[in-house]
């Protein structure tokens, strides 16, 4: 094997770091966008057609750009935000731009699953839009939201593999540079195995948490 | 008191305009149970939702205790809604929360202190008979229990009006009875005005004081339940009444008696209130020497008063039958001819 354990551990840490930080920011962005997508819909709490249309268009644009292209395309922006266009920190910016709109759609889906009748009952009780969102909509969707965010983390882990293209490091980068370009099959197998375990762990954790929050 | 004045509701569905409500004028008096019945698509659901502005009327006014609610600000609307409880066909409970939390919800929204919430929820659960289910979740309960939770939740803010949106339509007949009894208790014990919509005439017969029949967004008939059930005018109303009070002659019987050679006359006799208690048939039979044969009939209770409907075959001299009928009519009993071959 062309790499030692330390390198693998470092790559693992880079993957977790990139995914974790990117996830944090994309959840914040995705949550706000997803919530807005839902409440500005026709017939919903704060129906607003222009806002809804613009949001949908922006999200669709970001969602349609392949990650590898997005990463290169926003390099100037990345430079403004983190001061450099290479390295792990630089990889986080495109990851957020990629996962934010994605999470917005996932959250939109989860929130739309909440029975309209529950919202109607909330309105009939005299709840304000803010109360409806935080006392009814989100608690009712929580279990489904957790599963949606689990999907997002798995997606982010996958996307972070491409961060190597701008020197972001991580397990994906290791697999490409050593496993693929230098024909070290063992590195390839080991990194993929670690990724499999990582994804399994995230998914199991997500499932467990989702069951836990179904009833509170 | 809830007053509807020329209330209309028009939806835009693609290029088509749908008139859900077509000028509704109705008055629901304080403390009564008012039922609105109609087939699906008649506009019932839109009508009941204009009362708490879940739907805004396209034109016209809805007044609650004289106050036009369509002029209120968003904040005032929320305040008004707290005085109007609502229960739903599919209960609309929070599945992620316990029974306790569901009932407490309106109080939590109003920032009621925790110890007061506890006290009040306990009282409400006692009232609906579910105090032992407080820690359960809605999906562990039966339909009837869920509706009781819905009712407890609706009563949490001490409303003066309760709106029931097909509240028993998803329940079996026995559970329906129990829920209707609970609604009647709420009406009597707390003097809460109840406006309910339903497509089941049985619900109207069971608990309503007044009824309005809705068709194509219009009130086609209204009155006290007694009036409407004993003397329905519109074909739709007659269909609804017939669905719970079968007063038509069975086909087979009709064929058998449609025979001029029998020299008989058949009349429908409707007894109401006190006239039910009198031995009318035997008295008439003796007095006029007529043979009376009850072909079909039923006696039911309407709003606590008995109501009888008999189809009777009179056999005897036409002159005597005439006299007998005049006699019957004097006793506050409604008589109408069904068939006549005697004269």
Q: Can you characterise this structure?
A:
The complex is a heterodimer of chains A (216) and B (343). Chain A is mainly α and 216 residues long. Chain A contains nine helices and no strands. Chain A has helices at residues 5-39, 49-64, 67-73, 75-82, 88-112, 116-124, 129-160, 171-180, 185-214. In chain A, α7 (129-160) packs antiparallel against α9. Chain B is of the alpha/beta class and 343 residues long. In chain B, 36% of the residues lie in helices and 31% in strands. Chain B has helices at residues 44-51, 74-81, 99-109, 114-127, 143-155, 173-190, 201-207, 225-230, 235-244, 251-257, 280-288, 318-330; strands at 2-13, 16-28, 33-37, 59-64, 67-68, 84-88, 161-165, 193-198, 210-215, 218-224, 264-272, 291-302, 305-315, 334-340. In chain B, the strands form three sheets. Chain B has a six-stranded mixed β-sheet with strand order 6-7-8-3-9-10, sandwiched between helices. In chain B, strands 2-1-4-5 form a four-stranded antiparallel β-sheet. Chain B has a four-stranded antiparallel β-sheet with strand order 12-13-11-14. In chain B, α3 (99-109) runs parallel beside α5, α4 crosses α5 and α5 (143-155) runs parallel beside α6 (173-190). The longest helix of chain B has 18 residues, at 173-190. The interface between A and B is medium-sized, with 22 and 29 residues.
């Amino acid at each position: 094997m062309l790499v030692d354990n330390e390198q693998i551990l470092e790559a693992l840490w880079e993957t977790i770091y990139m995914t974790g930080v990117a996830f944090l920011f994309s959840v914040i962005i995705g949550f706000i966008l997803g919530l807005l997508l839902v409440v500005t819909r026709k017939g919903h709490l704060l129906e607003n057609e222009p806002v809804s249309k613009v949001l949908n268009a922006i999200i669709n644009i970001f969602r349609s750009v392949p990650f590898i292209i997005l990463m290169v395309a926003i390099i100037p922006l990345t430079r403004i935000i983190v001061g450099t266009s290479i390295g792990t920190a630089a990889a986080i910016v495109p990851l957020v731009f990629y996962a934010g709109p994605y999470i917005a759609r996932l959250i939109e889906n989860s929130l739309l699953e909440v029975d309209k009748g529950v919202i109607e009952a909330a309105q009939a009780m005299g709840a304000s839009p803010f109360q409806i969102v935080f006392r009814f909509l989100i608690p009712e969707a929580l279990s489904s939201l957790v599963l949606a965010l689990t999907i997002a983390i798995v997606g982010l882990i996958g996307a972070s593999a491409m961060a190597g293209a701008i020197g972001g490091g991580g397990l994906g980068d290791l697999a490409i540079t050593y496993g693929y370009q230098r024909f070290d099959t063992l590195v390839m197998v080991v990194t993929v195995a670690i990724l499999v375990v990582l994804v399994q762990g995230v998914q199991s954790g997500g499932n467990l948490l989702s069951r836990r929050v179904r009833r509170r | 008191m809830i007053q509807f004045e020329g209330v209309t509701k028009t939806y835009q569905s693609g290029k088509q305009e749908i008139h859900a409500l077509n000028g509704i004028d109705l008055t629901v008096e304080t403390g009564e149970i008012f039922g609105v019945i109609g087939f699906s698509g008649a506009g019932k659901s839109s009508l009941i939702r204009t009362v708490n502005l879940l739907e805004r009327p396209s034109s016209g006014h809805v007044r609650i205790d004289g106050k036009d609610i369509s002029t209120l600000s968003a904040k005032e609307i929320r305040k008004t809604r707290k005085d109007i409880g609502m229960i739903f066909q599919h209960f609309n409970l929070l599945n992620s929360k316990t029974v306790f939390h569901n009932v407490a919800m309106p109080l939590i929204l109003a920032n009621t202190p925790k110890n007061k919430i506890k006290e009040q929820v306990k009282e409400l659960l006692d009232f609906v008979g579910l105090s032992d289910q407080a820690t359960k979740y809605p999906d562990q309960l039966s339909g009837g229990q869920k509706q009781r939770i819905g009712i407890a939740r609706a009563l949490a803010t001490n409303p003066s009006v309760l709106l029931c949106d097909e509240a028993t339509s998803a329940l079996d007949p026995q559970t329906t009875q129990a829920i209707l009894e609970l609604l009647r208790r709420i009406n009597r014990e707390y003097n809460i005005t109840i406006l309910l919509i339903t497509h089941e005439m049985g619900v109207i017969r069971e608990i309503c004081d007044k009824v309005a029949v809705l068709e194509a967004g219009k009130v086609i008939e209204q009155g006290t339940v007694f009036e409407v059930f004993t003397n329905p005018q519109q074909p739709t109303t007659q269909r609804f009444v017939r669905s719970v009070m079968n007063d038509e002659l069975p086909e087979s019987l009709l064929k058998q008696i449609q025979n001029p050679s029998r020299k008989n006359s058949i009349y429908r006799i409707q007894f109401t209130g006190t006239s039910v208690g009198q031995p009318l048939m035997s008295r008439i039979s003796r007095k006029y020497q007529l043979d009376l044969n009850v072909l079909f009939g039923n006696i039911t209770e309407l709003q606590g008063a008995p109501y009888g409907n008999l189809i009777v075959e009179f056999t005897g001299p036409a002159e005597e039958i005439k006299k007998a009928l005049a006699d019957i009519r004097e006793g506050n009993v409604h008589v109408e001819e069904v068939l006549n071959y005697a004269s």
